[in-house]
């Protein structure tokens, strides 16, 4: 059976995820006023990643499905925590920090197959995402004062590094669509 040339949800999942990381990097390193746009980028990425995860499950690609569905659902939850959760009085810096920290173990576990398969770009993306989530969690936990601010800046740079590797993976998927039987 020939592989579908139009049936690759990885491209829009990776594109949307990279987009949200770019916006987060801008907010944390260049212009904090981008925070509102970042939250909508988080929603956009979460929705597209979750849809892609369900699509990948239907295609039988459970590893990739697990990655994008987990991150997609997590991003949607973060969006809801910081929008509706604020309205309900549920959102606070400590809650945001622990929301971050809770993702560290799944990131580490999801990286194991990438390491075993020797997928360098994916490994680099996982390392950068782990560092991003850890730094962001520490930044939330330590607060916006002088103690927490450096962690937020580190998280911003990790967001850009993650974005780079995730968009590189997207590029690889685009090239695979154009040349499905090469390399």
TrEMBL record:
In terms of superkingdom, the source organism counts as Bacteria
User: What is this protein identified as?
Assistant: GPR1/FUN34/yaaH family protein
Ordered alphabetically, the record's keywords are: Membrane, Transmembrane, Transmembrane helix
Q: Is Membrane tagged as a keyword?
A: yes
Mark the transmembrane ranges: 12-30, 36-56, 63-81, 97-115, 122-145, 151-171
């Amino acid at each position: 059976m020939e592989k579908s040339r139009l049936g690759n949800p990885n491209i829009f999942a990776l594109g949307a995820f990279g987009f949200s990381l770019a916006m987060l990097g801008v907010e944390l390193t260049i212009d904090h006023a981008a925070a509102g746009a970042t939250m909508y980028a988080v929603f956009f990425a979460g929705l597209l990643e979750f849809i892609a995860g369900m699509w990948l499950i239907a295609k039988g690609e459970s590893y990739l499905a697990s990655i994008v569905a987990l991150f997609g659902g997590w991003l949607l939850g973060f969006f809801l925590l910081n929008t509706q959760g604020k309205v309900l009085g549920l959102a606070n810096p400590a809650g945001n920090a622990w929301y971050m920290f809770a993702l560290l173990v799944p990131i580490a576990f999801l990286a194991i197959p990438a390491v075993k398969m020797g997928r360098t770009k994916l490994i680099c993306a996982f390392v950068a995402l782990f560092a991003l989530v850890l730094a962001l969690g520490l930044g939330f936990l330590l607060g916006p004062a002088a103690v927490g601010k450096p962690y937020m800046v580190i998280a911003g740079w990790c967001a850009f590094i993650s974005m780079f590797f995730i968009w590189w993976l997207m590029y690889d998927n685009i090239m695979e669509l154009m040349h499905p039987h090469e390399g």
